[in-house]
Design goal:
The chain has one helix and no strands. By secondary structure, it is mainly alpha-helical.
Length: 82
């Protein structure tokens, strides 16, 4: 058989696996941190809007029409004894 040398150094498979695992772990940690920050910000915005709605009765234009900021239509059979 004829072997052709290209001069490219290929690391051992175990090194490549550990490197990929490390990169994947770092990406996953960064992803979860960003996801937590976005979820926390969204939760804080919603809590502030609910507080304003409960204390003043005013609702921001962006939140008008949402069921949590107004009266929901009555559900049939809700609250009636069986």
């Amino acid at each position: 058989m004829l072997a052709v040398t290209t001069g490219i150094v290929v690391p051992e498979p175990s090194t490549v696996t550990l490197c990929g695992l490390g990169i994947g772990l770092v990406v996953a940690v960064v992803y979860w941190i960003i996801l937590g920050l976005v979820a926390s910000a969204a939760s804080s915005i919603l809590i502030a809007a609910l507080y304003r709605s409960a204390t003043t009765g005013k609702v921001a234009e962006d939140f008008q029409g949402l069921p949590m900021f107004g009266t929901a239509p009555p559900r049939p059979g809700y609250g009636t004894p069986p």
